Automatic annotation (TrEMBL):
Known partners and oligomeric status: Interacts with UvrB in an incision complex.
Originating gene: uvrC
Record PANTHER family: UVRABC SYSTEM PROTEIN C, UVRC/OXIDOREDUCTASE
GO CC entries: cytoplasm; excinuclease repair complex
Gene Ontology molecular function, alphabetical: DNA binding; excinuclease ABC activity
Domain UvrC family homology region profile per the UniProt entry, residue ranges: 263-488
Annotated InterPro entries: GIY-YIG_endonuc, GIY-YIG_endonuc_sf, GIY-YIG_UvrC_Cho, Hlx-hairpin-Hlx_DNA-bd_motif, RuvA_2-like, UVR_dom, UVR_dom_sf, UvrABC_protein_C
Entry-linked Gene3D superfamilies: 5' to 3' exonuclease, C-terminal subdomain, GIY-YIG endonuclease, UVR domain, UvrC, RNAse H endonuclease domain
Domain UVR: 212-247
Transmembrane segments: none
A Pfam family it matches: UVR
UniProt source species: Desulfonema limicola
Name used for this protein in its record: UvrABC system protein C
Keywords, comma-separated and alphabetical: Cytoplasm, DNA damage, DNA excision, DNA repair, Excision nuclease, SOS response
Domain of life: Bacteria
Length: 617
């Protein structure tokens, strides 16, 4: 069968005429009955490779057989060599993104640490996307928390600048980090670049997992400082060694040869696949990542091979040795590909015994556990969908409650009144959708007026404030529910979504559950014996309450702290700003001595005495 395509004229085949396929190396494109490319593969022998798909006895499981049935015809592209086939396959996968290929998600979801060594005084930042810009990237890390924890350790033990580059270029005087000895202050002071670069080199050693080498280097510097009777510097270096040793204690040593290596292992269950990658640097296990995939025509060897190509194409570091849980089909081609990127010799091994085999077993266990967690998480998604379906039925809601928005007010006797909005999508909190509101138009304490104001601000601009929720919930029972209904009717968007109110149980009357109210009925909704529904709505209400309370406390705190400085004679807006910029917080101003306060530019001796007197009171 022949098929015309935009790039020219190419021969197409059906499963019935495989005998016509060339036995040369090349790439094949599997297509469904609509002509969509559903899988791209490479082969040393195209005919032999494609034939394997249509021989049922060779299918590893039922799933592969079902996917093969979706192949209506296929096309081939002959190449000069396997290497050329590899490059072409990679390009076609990137371009077409076929459904049943292994496609590694963009590395932006995995945070990395960036050290831009091209800057005169480099800084370390957490980034989501790596670039080929000459900077050094370390990671990716399994979570933002892991990346920021590493950054915290570095900032605590190394005097690298902490300020952003934009601030660094415009700062006129050193910040608090310089004052407490955590930074050399290159933003304003003439810092020796060689000294600063030594700090950068130490950080690179640390991030590459060479902490023992770094400790040895610092110990040598400590001894030299001690011999020169520079005891203050020697003590500082001693404390740094102690901190780094504590970091090492938290790491797991897994090899004794101190070679950098990665270990890739695979676990499979029906249509779900998990690839685990362990990172060992200098003998220490520093990272474990899981990469889930679903539905593919590739076998386990192809999956590992494709994963290696795609992963190391995006990362800026390739170790000298890669261990795999199963042998690769095209080991030499993969080596050539990686060595072309790294410009160094690399080894890919599938160990059968010894220390390296133990590492592979560890990766396999992590892959299996990751797969189990992945399947459970998908089950959770199914559970939440069923829960929301039952909620829609119970409330007799017009729309499926995919997006739920809940509002709550918070104030104490009308002081610093605020409100919070929390969003749940598909049964889970959507933190990016949370909103904080300061009450602006209501002067007297009035919870109903507060609710009316924030609902008008949220929904009063129509399409500009999309998406609308499927279900709006207000905390406060009938009164707040009636307020919400009135506001929505006034705005002319009645019927766009369902509205409910949630009221706390009255223990005095013996009630055991919160009550859910709907517009137009006096009695609460009968939630039946299904406690999961009311518990779910309570969870949303409690999260909204927590969010609003936290915002109210922060506003109250700012107001009370600000008023302390505002009440000091001679301290206006500028001097208040100078004091806060210099000390960093009210607490540190309170702990300061008279001489330290007088040292702040713009603060006279008389004003400093007034500040000290106020805080001592």
């Amino acid at each position: 069968m022949k098929k015309n395509i935009s790039s020219g004229f190419r021969i197409g085949y059906t499963p019935e005429n495989i005998s016509q396929v060339s036995s040369n190396p090349g790439v094949y494109l599997m297509k469904d009955n609509k002509g969509n490319i559903i899988y791209v593969g490479k082969a040393k022998n195209l005919r032999k490779r494609i034939s394997s798909y249509f021989q049922k006895s060779e299918h590893p499981d039922l799933k592969t057989g079902l996917l093969v049935k979706k192949i209506a015809f296929f096309e081939t592209i002959i190449t000069e060599s396997e290497n050329n086939a590899l490059m072409l396959e990679s390009n076609l996968i990137k371009h077409f993104k076929p459904r049943y290929n292994i496609i590694l998600k963009d590395g932006r979801q995995y945070p990395s640490l960036c050290l831009n060594i091209k800057e005169p005084y480099p800084s370390l930042t957490v980034v989501r996307k790596t670039k080929k810009d000459g900077a050094l990237y370390f990671g990716p890390y399994t979570s933002p928390g892991a990346a920021y924890q590493t950054l915290k350790i570095i900032n605590k033990n190394f005097k690298l600048r902490k300020c952003k580059t934009s601030v660094f270029k415009t700062r006129t005087r050193p910040c608090l980090n310089w004052q407490i000895g955590a930074c050399l202050g290159p933003c304003c002071l003439d810092v020796d670049k060689d000294l600063y670069n030594e700090i950068v080199k130490e950080i690179i050693l640390f991030l590459k997992g060479r902490t023992p080498d770094l400790i040895q280097k610092i110990r040598k510097e400590m001894q030299e400082s001690s011999e020169k009777q520079n005891y203050e510097l020697a003590a500082e270096l001693r404390d740094k060694i102690s901190a780094l040793k504590k970091t090492i204690e938290k790491q797991v040593i897994v090899t004794t040869d101190f070679i950098d290596r990665d270990i890739a292992a695979i676990a499979r269950s029906h249509e779900r696949i998990m690839v685990n990658l362990l990172s060992v640097r200098g003998g220490f296990l520093i990272n474990s990542q899981n990469f889930p995939f679903t539905q593919t025509l590739a076998d386990d060897s192809e999956i590992i091979e494709t994963f290696i190509h795609q992963y190391y194409e995006k990362t800026n570091f390739i170790p000298k040795e890669i261990l795999t849980s199963i042998p690769l089909e095209n080991t030499q081609i993969t080596l050539d590909y990686l060595e072309k990127i790294k410009h160094e010799k690399i080894s890919i091994l599938t160990p059968q015994r010894g220390e390296k085999m133990s590492l592979v077993n560890m990766a396999v266990k992590n892959a299996k556990q990751g797969l189990k967690d992945f399947i459970l998480s998908e089950t959770d998604e199914s559970f939440l969908t069923r829960l929301l379906t039952r909620l829609q039925t119970c409330l007799k809601a017009k729309q499926f409650p995919r997006r739920i928005e809940c509002f709550d007010n918070s104030n104490i006797s009308g002081t610093s009144p605020v409100a919070g909005m929390v969003v749940f999508e598909n049964g889970k909190p959507l933190k990016s959708g949370y909103r904080k509101y300061k009450i602006k138009t209501v002067q007297e304490p009035d919870d109903y007026a507060y609710m009316a104001e924030i609902l008008k601000r949220r929904y009063g601009r129509g399409e500009d404030f999309m998406p609308f929720p499927d279900l709006l919930m207000v905390d406060g029972g009938k009164g707040q529910l009636n307020t919400a209904v009135s506001v929505i009717r006034e705005l002319g968007i009645e019927g766009r979504f369902d509205i409910i109110g949630i009221a706390k149980k009255d223990e005095k009357t013996g009630e055991t559950r919160d009550k859910i109210y709907k517009p137009g009925r006096s009695n609460p909704v009968n939630m039946g014996k299904d406690n999961s529904l009311i518990f779910f709505l309570q969870q949303i209400r409690d999260e909204t309450h927590r969010f609003a309370i936290s915002f109210h406390r922060s506003q109250r705190g700012k107001k009370s702290l600000g008023s302390i400085l505002d009440s000091i004679p001679g301290v206006g807006l500028k001097r208040k700003k100078d004091l806060l910029n210099h000390f960093g917080s009210i607490k540190k101003i309170q702990a300061a001595t008279l001489e330290q306060i007088k040292a702040v530019p713009g603060i006279s001796a008389k004003t400093a005495e007034a500040v000290l007197k106020k805080f001592h009171q």
